[in-house]
């Protein structure tokens, strides 16, 4: 059954990596050039908006982190290390749990901040007299929209691992005594 | 020791409620009127920006939810209900854990989205020809800044409870068999 949960985690991490890489690529390689007036044209890229730059960095880092976790899974599958009562296991489990939590929050936040920026680009703001951008760069904006969808799916999957990581570390504690490991 | 953790949780929840209410009030009651030209004046409120409206709703709801959790603590302190092996305890613990997680993510996201909107108001965007707003409504923007700080502190505190809730529910499971409760 332990192998079952490990397999599920590896599976979910691989899918999340694919979605994270998709988000980063969809944003980073999205460009659209539009002729504004006669020979004057304007090129839209993710570099026009800090929120999109941060989204590319955060999703790439999260993908890299999850890849490292996959490597860790390969190593910890060796029988000598996978001794559940060793303190080594507890350290690694705690670090994984904390890093997983931080990664989910960062990905979720970067996605939401960029989403808010995209809402302004889509609708503008009457109160602030900010004009819409997406009516000029429609294809660019649509691609960014798909990237957000991938980013949110990845965030949800990562929220699931972070619960699995929490399960792995916290079930080692006694149900009767506070923060005492079982069998002590 | 169980009482110790319960006391800490109540303490942290009370502090988080104070920060959440502060965020909601600081944003909702923030107004500034500025004379733009002779007799024409403009009033800035949180209603000018959807992200700020959502922040007020989300932080108020999160404060209400945490207040309900405090009430639950008062009831479950009664000896008849606080039987740790009952399935009632497990249901409540799981629901609390899931709701805590959802609340943290929502608060964090609403805060970050509003923060991104505030960055635009502060710096404008050269690429999109969006003008700065905060150079006109400085005091309004400063108050919103303090609200964000409170919102982020509340989010961090709530991330701590959600870990406590996870600890409360997940340590009930066997460390050897998958998703099997201890003592079964």
Automatic annotation (TrEMBL), chains A, B:
Keywords: Cell membrane, Membrane, Transmembrane, Transmembrane helix. Pfam families: CASP_dom. It comes from Trifolium subterraneum. One of its GO terms (cellular component) is plasma membrane. Homodimer and heterodimers. It is found in: Cell membrane. Residues 5-157 form the Casparian strip membrane protein domain. This is CASP-like protein. The lineage of its organism: Eukaryota, Viridiplantae, Streptophyta, Embryophyta, Tracheophyta.
């Amino acid at each position: 059954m332990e192998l079952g949960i490990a397999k599920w985690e590896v599976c979910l991490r691989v899918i999340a990596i694919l979605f994270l890489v998709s988000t980063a690529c969809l944003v980073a390689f999205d460009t659209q050039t539009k002729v504004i007036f006669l020979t004057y044209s304007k090129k839209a890229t993710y570099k026009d908006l800090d929120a999109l730059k941060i989204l590319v960095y955060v999703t790439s880092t999260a993908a890299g982190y999850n890849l490292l976790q996959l490597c860790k899974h390969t190593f910890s599958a060796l029988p000598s290390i996978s001794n559940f009562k060793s303190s080594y296991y507890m350290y690694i489990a705690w670090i994984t749990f904390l890093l997983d939590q931080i990664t989910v929050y960062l990905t979720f936040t970067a996605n939401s901040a960029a989403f808010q920026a995209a809402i302004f680009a889509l609708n503008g703001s009457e109160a602030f007299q900010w004009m819409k951008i997406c009516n000029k760069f429609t294809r660019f904006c649509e691609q960014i929209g798909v990237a957000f969808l991938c980013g949110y799916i990845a965030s949800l999957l990562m929220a699931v691992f972070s619960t699995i990581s929490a399960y792995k570390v916290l079930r080692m504690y006694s149900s009767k005594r506070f923060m005492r490991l079982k069998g002590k």
